[in-house]
Structure formats: C-alpha cells, structure tokens
Amino acid sequence: MPIKIPDSLPARATLEGENIFVMTEYRAIHQDMRPLNLLILNLMPTKIVTETQLLRKLSNTPLQIQVELLQMASHVSQNTDASHLASFYTTFDQIKDKRYDGMIITGAPVENLDFADVDYWPELCDIMEWTKTHVHSTLHVCWGAQAGLYYHYGIPKYSLPKKLFGVFPHTIIKKQSPLFRGFDDIFYVPHSRHTENHLDDILDRPELELLAVSDEAGVFAVKSENNRRFFITGHPEYDPDTLANEYFRDINKGLDIDVPKHYFPGDDPQQSPVVRWRSAAQLFYTNWLNYYVYQTTPYDLYHGQLQ
C-alpha cells in the first residue's frame, strides 16, 4: 500500500523508479480510511537524501501514511535549497496544535557539541516535550536518540576515542519484542558517530528497556516501558553508498578517517560495498509502524489519550 507525499517532492521520482507505491493527494482523499499521520523532524544537512531514505523504508506496509516534514525555525540550513524547505517543510509553530500517530526525529552532525551548545537545542526540547501529549509513538535516530535519552531520562552521551564507522553485527536482547519480529539472530546496521551511550546508564533506568546491542557498536535499540518512545543509535535507513560517500568526502578534505568496517569487501574502498542491512532495516521500520503506531494509536487522535 502507498505512502502519501506531495506530488512534486523530489523523493517521489526516485521511489517510483524503484516501483514503490506513492499516492497522489486526489487518490488518497477518495479512499475510505484514515491514514496514519506521521511527522519527520529532519535534522540532517542533506535533507532530500534523508527524506528519500526514510520514505523508502516507511512505504512497505499495507497502511496509508500521510507524511509531513518539519524543520527547525531556530536554525538556518546551509545544505538544502531554501525553496525546497519553503515548499515541503513546516515549522513547529505551524503544527503544534496538531496530533500525530507517529514521529521520527533524525540524527544530526552535532555529536561533538554539548547538547546546550546546539543552536536549536531549546526548540528541540520544546518539541520533545510536546511529543508527550501530541504524538503516539516517537522514533529517535542516532544523535536524535542521544538527545531524546538525555532530555527525557537524563542519560548522557560520551565521546569515543575515534569515530565509530561501518556496518556492525547486532544481537537482540528482548527476543519477544515485536519490534524485532522476523529478524535473524544476527543483523547488521550502519553506524557513523563520534559519541555513544553507556549500557549501565540504560540499565539503571527502570522506565527503559534495552532491546538490542552490538559487541562493537554498543547500545543499539532502547524503548520506554510504555512503548511511546524508541531510540536507535545507528542508521538502518542508509543507502548502499552513504558510508562510501562520507568516507571519500572526508578523504578528499584531507581528514584522518578509517575505512568503514565490514563494509567494503576486504576493507578495500575501491570495491563496491556489500549491503547486509537492507532487509533488517525494512523490517524494523515496518514493525515499528505496525505494532507501535497502527495497532495502538487512537482512531480519533484528538479524543484519544496521549500521556
């Protein structure tokens, strides 16, 4: 079933070229069903790339999903054309009276800053507070996960001695969790970050459940006990060439960066990357939408209980 997005969003052509079903506004309003209302707070600098990656993962479900894109009013994007933002993005003041079935808060390349030093941190705190009463289920990704864990639970992030960069094997702690239903015993996820959360900090909070970890990448998936907030420290939505593009970008800048681990065959960057995370990534987003958004959200968002 389709994902409903604006006709002229650049991601549409890419997704249709991959035989992913996207729906026009006209066709959507003639279906007798309530779509899931999903909000994406896109903090990544390459917003069009991130839009496409996330929409691709959200599309493989028998649900109709209406997506809105949110940007920070307190930050000026340097890498996305202003006309694109004006055409497809909204700001918090414009949507703060609305309610949503689900929300995704993406990562951002600000890990080496203290949270309070990020220019849009006060606005992000307002949004995360607002999700408690206006969003049924919120998924925090990478730095967005670290920000959410810190804001909601006071869990700090810690600097790594060197960048965690590559595609790492993970195992499931809560094997009965619907979030990982259908997963293999070992699954792979890309990571690209300079900071981490510590396992003991998660385990010390009874309101949190640790769901999945990696021997090399550490904590991966955490959720709140009430299933309203999810935190993942990697990027399952990444394209096959995302880490390669990041690696060669930094090499061309003369930066000291290691070859991403477990990514290029034989760790040879002249070889094409091997994709080992695509199916797990798709299943992850489908499971979140199905079990933690669709099956539990109130039909009437404005009269259901969001606490």
TrEMBL record:
It catalyses: L-homoserine + acetyl-CoA = O-acetyl-L-homoserine + CoA. Its EC number is 2.3.1.31. One of its GO terms (cellular component) is cytoplasm. The record marks S192 as: Important for substrate specificity. CDD domains: GATase1_HTS. The active site is at C142 (acyl-thioester intermediate), H235 (proton acceptor), E237. The keyword Nucleotide-binding does not apply. Its main location: cytoplasm. InterPro entries: Class_I_gatase-like (IPR029062), HST_MetA (IPR005697), MetA_family (IPR033752). GO terms for biological process: L-methionine biosynthetic process from homoserine via O-succinyl-L-homoserine and cystathionine. Transmembrane segments: none annotated. Pathway: Amino-acid biosynthesis; L-methionine biosynthesis via de novo pathway; O-acetyl-L-homoserine from L-homoserine: step 1/1. HAMAP family: MetA_acyltransf (MF_00295). Belongs to the MetA family. This is Homoserine O-acetyltransferase. The gene is metA.
